[in-house]
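From the pipeline queue, job 12 of 40. The input is one protein chain; the requested action is below.

Action: predict structure.
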Amino acid sequence: IIIAGRPGMGKSVFVKDCAEASEVPVLYFPIEMSVSQTQKRQIAGYADVSFEKILSGMLTDQDWQRIVTAVSQLSERPIFYVNKGHLSIEEIVAISKQAFRKHGIKMVIIDYLQLLRSKSKAENREQEISKISMQLKGLARDLNIPVIAVSQLNRSCENRSNKRPMLSDLRESGAIEQDADIVGLLYRSEYYKKVNNDERNVAELIIAKGRNIKTGMVKLYFNGEYQKFGNYFYDDTF
């Protein structure tokens, strides 16, 4: 499963929410940021405390009470973080299989794909990404669990009048599109322009490819302050 988008669309927040919503053991590789940063985002979403306030430490007594409760709730979630950067795809596969045997993990999350490297030689970056994509697909097949990888998009959509992403915008390799069972593209129009009330805090999850599921678009509510997604409903008080 690929979750892709341009910077600022909420990709890392989305996969974080996937980990939280799942009640099964999850192996989480937050390669782009530290585990501490990822957990602070989780706390913000659970506690309904501004992410910026958590980063700054300017917290009220009520904020602290909410944070303590959130930490207690999150500690019960079977999420296993791998606090290592610059991992190769071979290390990702080995760690995942070990965690599958030891902890019975039912989901792997990787944030994000383009930060991975392969130990095997490749003529160019596109070929290397193709090898990485193939190994992720093999991992999902071997363990029979979902493997969710965040992916960047190239700049093509930035040059279009309609900036909604397309499958062809996937960065560095067509193999990502080919190997994935599901490709979800995140888009928020308010990132690019001023919007009306009915578009504020709204994200689109565009299912651009779906194996055994329909393609289409789902609207989500995006709360940047608390770093979380939610169910969409139109409310002019947003």
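Job complete. The chain has a mean pLDDT of 90.
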